[in-house]
Every structure is written in C-alpha cells, then in structure tokens.
Amino acid sequence: RSAVPVPAPMEAREPLRELRGSLRAVLNRIREGEPGQGRDPFELSRFWDALGQAFKVTSQEATKLSLAFSGSPLTSAEDCQKLGEDVQNAILAVATVYYWLPKGQGTTLRKMVRDATTEVVEGMIQLIETILSSPLESLSQEQLISTAGVWEACEQVSSLPRGEYNQAAVASALAACLGVVKDAVKEMEQALVEGQDPYSDILEDEELGFRGNRDTYWSEADRRLLSSCMGLMKASKACLKKILGVVKAYGKADSAEQITQLDDLADIAHQISPSVDELALSMYPPVNQLAVRLNAAKLASVLKKVLEITKASHVCPPPEEGWVQFLTGAVDHNMNKIKNLTQGQL
C-alpha cells in the first residue's frame, strides 16, 4: 500500500528557524560591517536600480512566505525549505547591493541606505518569528501586520534621497532636524501664550482640589528668562532653515573634501534638535534657572559650531556670509541676556 505523504508541521517549521538564524547573522554584518571601496567604477544610477530591484524581490518573497503559512493545506517541509532559500537569497541580494556603496560617497548617504536595509531585514525576521509563534492553519492579525511591515520597509527605497550623491542625503537629514525644531518652538510658544499655567490641560482634576501650587506657574522672573530662551530656540530654527537653503543651492559632491564638509554639517546639525528639546524641557515650571542656563549654553555652543562649519565650507560663498554673521550675533545676544538674568544662581 503506497503511503500518502502527510505534511509534518513541526518539520516544516525547522527550515524557518534556520532561516531566522541566518538572517540574524546577515543583520549583524550589515550593522557592524563597512561597505567596500568597490573595484569597478561606481555608478549611482546603477546602484539605485539594483537596490530598488532587490527591495522589490524581497517584498514579493515576504508575500509568498506569508501566504504559504496562512491556512491549509499545510506547507510541506520541502516547500518550506525552498521558500526559506528564496527569502535568504533575496535578503543577501539586498545586503550585497548595500555593500556596493563606497565610503567615498559620504557617511550621511551610507547611513540612510544602511538604516533602510536593516529595517527590511528586521521586518523579515519579525515576520518569520510571527509565523513560528502562530497557529499553523490560520492567518493571524499579527502575521498580516508583520507582512505589511516588510512591504512598508521595502517601499522606503523609493523615498531615499537620490539627488547628487551625498548632497541630497544631507539636505534630507537637515530637513528632518528642522521639522523637529519647528515643532518644539511651536509647542513652547503655545505654552507661553496659554497664560500662567502651562499644565492646565493635564491638571484639571477635582481630586487635586484648589490649584495654588507655585510649581505649576511661571513667575515674572521666569518669563523674562524664557523670552531669551525662546530667542535661542528661534535662532536654531533660523540656522537650520538657512543651512538647508544653502546646501540645496550650493551643495556639491564632486570631491572628497566637499562630501566630507557636507557630512560634517549633517553630523553637527543632528545635535541641534536634542539640545533644543533639553532646553525646552528645563523651561517648564518649576523652573531651575541654573539648569536652564546650562542647557541654553549647550545649545548656544552647538549653534556657534554649526555656523562656523557652514562658513568654512563650500556651501557658504561670500554673498551668504551676512546671515551667518547675523545669526552668530543673535545667539550671543540671547545667551548674554540669559547669563545676566541667571547671575544670582552661580
């Protein structure tokens, strides 16, 4: 009597466990490894085409894998092995294309491509883990979400900045920093305008009884200090806006020096938004004036450094030097006022 092959659920899942282990190893290599210098002359357009294609294939493999484990009939061990190999090949192709991107193209661009690549690999590992922990003959909500997560990560490749090498990547990074700073300035302005009590929206609670707590109010002295802090936050916004403008207008990536200058700008600009956030947090009551002064000094020093690096780089031809000087003056002016107002705290 010929035996009818019966799918072995546990056996079918074994290749998935092996695949998960392989993908974790690939992920570690992407996180820790450095792209090569590349033997062939590097072509950016060829690189983007290959990356787009590798991401597209990975998205399709995620769909196939998910469908195979979304109901009966159950996938056989052989089919599962084949699916696993296809997924692994797709992920290895993504990693290989990332490694094509030479260091000389700029660290900002490389970091963006590396982040997009790791997100795809992490998404695929998450999908495999979801399949392994789901009942075999059903398509769980978690599996749908994980599959969509891989699709989304793969689609990100289309929104990566593809202009002139590193210049587009740096412009994109600066625009992201500017967005964060704009939000922080807007939030603080609203809090200051909404009257004496910035916590009114979260402390309207009968159980708290009479609200006479000084800790939730700004004194007149606090408000004078905060007005100069706002000046510093607005200077941060103006700096990023202006630098983004000149990077778009004059940024070039024709030489190693230009690429490095753009990377230096992106690196220091990334320090602005956390410094703005720290200052904003210390501005809420009860105000510790010394903490405010220290956070303001930290932000002022980052802004001065950003302006120095901008002025010394190719994105700042002589006609642009005026605003650099003006904003340096604005930072100094506000910082001096903050020092005078907090003199008694030292």
Automatic annotation (TrEMBL):
Q: What keywords is this UniProt entry annotated with?
A: Cell cycle, Cytoplasm, Nucleus
Residue runs in coiled coils: none
Subcellular location per UniProt equals: Cytoplasm; Nucleus
Start and end of every Cyclin-D1-binding protein 1-like N-terminal domain?
Answer: 51-192
> What Pfam families does the database record attribute to this sequence?
GCIP_C (PF20936), GCIP_N (PF13324)
Annotated Gene Ontology cellular component terms: cytoplasm; nucleus
Lyase in keyword set: no
The residue ranges of the Cyclin-D1-binding protein 1-like C-terminal domain are 203-308
Q: Which family does it belong to?
A: Belongs to the CCNDBP1 family.
**PANTHER family per UniProt:** CYCLIN D1-BINDING PROTEIN 1, CYCLIN-D1-BINDING PROTEIN 1
Name of this chain's protein: CCDB1 protein
Its source organism is Ramphastos sulfuratus
What does the record give as the organism's lineage?
A: Eukaryota, Metazoa, Chordata, Craniata, Vertebrata
What gene name does this entry carry? Ccndbp1
